[in-house]
Amino acid sequence: MSTEYRKLHHIPAGRAGGRFTMCELAWSVAAGDAAAIPALLRMLYPPASGYCRARARATGHSFDDADRLALEVCRTVLGVLSSPAGAQRDFVRFTYSTAVVAADRRFGAPTDTCMTRLQQETLILRTILGFDAGQTAVALGITPQRVLVEQHAALRLFRAA
């Protein structure tokens, strides 16, 4: 990651052990740093796979199908990051939206009738992927407070079922 890019985006010059966040790596890739791609993929694939696996399991598809779809999601995200408009995207929201669209196309929309789609997505992000309320809020485009309300409602419905 270049010094100029770090200054422009207010990114610290170094981290303990040389580690960067997924968003910092995405910014670096968007700025043309091809050397950041492997590190970004190592960080991006596990949550993409976890999301795709959760969606596959709910519809009776195999984890192999989900893992292949996660690779497609990663390729799509890298392709967009490499485009001229890549740096203008909200990385977390864009990546989540890409995974949702791909999973809907491949596995169909979730059909659980006791929960809303937002409640289902909240549970996947919070319980399976381990996102905190803030990360979940960014991905879903809602407030952290709404995340907690949706999670509470979903768990109440889940327990009652």
Provide a descriptive summary of the structure in words.
- The protein is mainly alpha-helical and 161 residues long.
- It has 2 domains: 1-111, no CATH class; 112-161, Winged helix-like DNA-binding domain superfamily/Winged helix DNA-binding domain (Arc Repressor Mutant, subunit A).
- It is 68% helix and 0% strand.
- The chain contains 8 helices and no strands.
- The N and C termini lie far apart (50 Å).
Content-based structural category: mainly alpha
Helix content: 55-70%
Please report which band the strand proportion falls in: under 5%, 5-15%, 15-25%, 25-35%, 35-45% or over 45%: under 5%
Q: Give the CA-based shape.
A: globular
Oligomer state equals single chain
Instruction: Supply the number of structural domains.
Output: 2
Give the termini distance in whole angstroms.
Answer: 50 Å
Please outline the helices and strands.
Layout: H1 3-8, H2 22-30, H3 37-58, H4 63-81, H5 91-107, H6 117-128, H7 133-140, H8 144-160
Helix pairs in contact: 2-3, 3-4, 3-5, 4-5, 5-7, 6-8, 7-8
